[in-house]
Amino acid sequence: MSDTHQYGDNGTKLLMESRRSTQTDTLMKYNDTLVRTLIREQRDLEKLATSLLEADHNLRGPPPPALLIIQTTINRNKRCLLAYHAHRTSMLQNMYWKYGGALPHLLSDPDLRSRLSPHEVDYLRQYNSSLMDFRSDFTYELDIMSGIEKPPTEIQVRVRVARECGVVQTENGTIDFKPGERYVVRRADVEHLIVQGYLEEI
Amino acid sequence: MSNWGREYENRSGFFNDALDVGQGPANPPRQAGFNLDEDIDVAMQPAGAVAPPRRLVENTEEVEQTPLQTMIRHWMNERHSPDILPAQEALLAGLLDHLRSQTRNIQILRDDPRTSESEHIRIMLVQTEIERVKFLIRSYIRTRLYKIERYARFITTNADIQTRLTASEREHASRHAKITDQHLFLSVLQSLPESQAHLDDTPVFYPSMVTQPDKTRPVFVHALQDCPPVALPDGTRLQMNKGHISLTPYHVVEHLVARGEAELV
Amino acid sequence: MALPPALRGSVTPQELEMIASQQVIEIIPLIAMEKTAFISGAYGPLRPPNKSKIPLWMAVNLKQKKKCHIVPPRWLNVEFLQGRLDLENSDSRAFCELPFRFAEIAKVIIDIASDDLENPDQIRSLLKDLREARQAKCRAGLGQIDHSELSLSNLGSMEINEIRPVFVQSMNILSKLARSNTLEA
Which chain B residues have a beta carbon less than 8 Å from that of A67? Predict the structure, then answer.
């Protein structure tokens, strides 16, 4: 086997994926293969460490250098694995908030769905659930999911219907949004539609 | 039109109710806003006054702060501070109450068919303010939420920081820590050998696995009044007089911010 | 996460403008309005042509609907700003006194009510010169930064926000270095 890679290469590969995800602002597909490879590597390293310890009869001397290297690698790999997963959940959280907490909308996107591991889907559901609990503490008027990037100047906004969204309930009654048409509406009533891409602000 | 005002005064309390029930400041609220004048008067002092820090603060303590102004200050403090500051539950509740009553007042006015153009404008202004205040409160809550989720694991084991959270924030932190731990367990840890399967590593040269507030992070601090001297990292002491602005690690001025003697900008 | 990346550890110019817009300004109303209790306080009555004091955000709203004229604050004019600029240039280190939120307030008024200003172009130009003079001093201040403290009195809120990333990061790094020095010693 002309494997010239060194300990920690796989861990680094995982981190590089995280870095690429951040740089392109896109969540890459969950790299199940690489994760499994790393986990296998961890088990092998553990066996190696154990056998080194058993072979080492000099209990009062310093540990064999090989053991230090292996232990360091184990620690680093573990950290890489955890960092990779934590980084992804943080990106998922960002996405969740960006879409105003519309979980069904997020999960119904087949492209995104295919990039998540089953555990990650569970995580999103649990995250959403916890937030729904938290959110219920505030009156219905204060929707914490609404945007916090653009301070309100005008209470009304001009929009164009980019995607079919049907009849929408607003404070002033119902509006039947026809695709391609323009409307002047209260921002608070339609913000979630803008965020999800049904309406376009003009 | 002349009697109209009276009708609404009686019906919706749109005029001075808010003040009568003590929701406004003790002084006539007009004062609270006149700080631009105050700014100007100080600024017009003759040259040579370059060195002393100016006292062009928006709201000095001589003029009592309205709840909204106080909320804005807490919002900014929370945004700039690496730590989580004490939750302003009473203040928030008061503002939410005020929002509700303003919304009710609008509905009454809107339902009235006699509404003239100037009334429409008044309604629009009140609505705009409602949206402004909601925005602010939302942002405050989410600023805290961001930190709470980041430090969730730390929070579950630190009694001190827990005292600064509301009950629902504490519960959310606890749920969040659990969700996160569980996810890492299912995705990684449960497949690893026992000796590697925990989240309590303390290796050298690596950051801790438990993210906690970094109080050494530098912040811009603005003295709202003459402050007692503080100890700087280089061993010297700094005396900030009212209006002074400094960049310094958060822990240096943490207590001043807590006491309201300084704010973060 | 609950805070979008742009808002973590910093404030956006829009947020600063929003905060600055709470400040009260004088207007000449073109419509009448009864005294009204807002959350910020009670404002009005508006009785044209009498001047009145209302929050800047309200003034902006009315101005955009052509329902008022804005009376510029006493510092937003050529004479005053020229004086400040001279003062600014006369001292190589300290910043001259300006209202804390002068940049935000000036921007808002110039944007929507330049017709209520005398010499808006010159005002713009003076503000730009002031900004540059003060920025130069900030850069010099960056050279003096250490791990402990840097005094920046009289700097405006928008100016602080602009230098924030670099200054905080610099002091942070110096701070960490200082701490590791003490550890080794």
Answer: none
Q: How much is the CA Rg of chain C, to the nearest whole Å?
A: 20
The residue of B1, B8, B44, B50 whose CB has the most chain C CBs within 10 angstroms, and thus the best one to mutate to test that interface, is B50
* Rounded to 5°, angle at Cα B70 from B56 and C64: 70
- Same domain for A164 and A127: no
- Domains with residue ranges and CATH for chain C: 11-120+133-184 (3.40.5.50)
C155 pLDDT exceeds 70? Answer: yes
Side by side, the strands of the sheet bearing C150-151 are B262-264, B218-223, B245-249, C150-151
The closest CB to that of A90, out of C1, C17, C18, belongs to C1
Of the listed ranges A1-5, A71-75, A160-164, A173-177, the one predicted with least confidence = A1-5
This model of the complex carries an ipTM of 0.94
Q: What is the mean pLDDT of residues A92-111?
A: 91
pTM, rounded to two decimals? 0.86
Note whether B45 and C87 are within 8 A (CB).
no
pLDDT in tens, C103-138: 999 999 999 999 999 999 999 999 999 999 999 999
**Residue in C56, C48, C54, C34 with CA at minimum distance from that of residue B16:** C34
Task: List beta partners, residue B160.
Answer: none
A16 and A102 part of one domain: yes
Q: Which residues of C touch A154 (CB under 8 A)?
A: 61
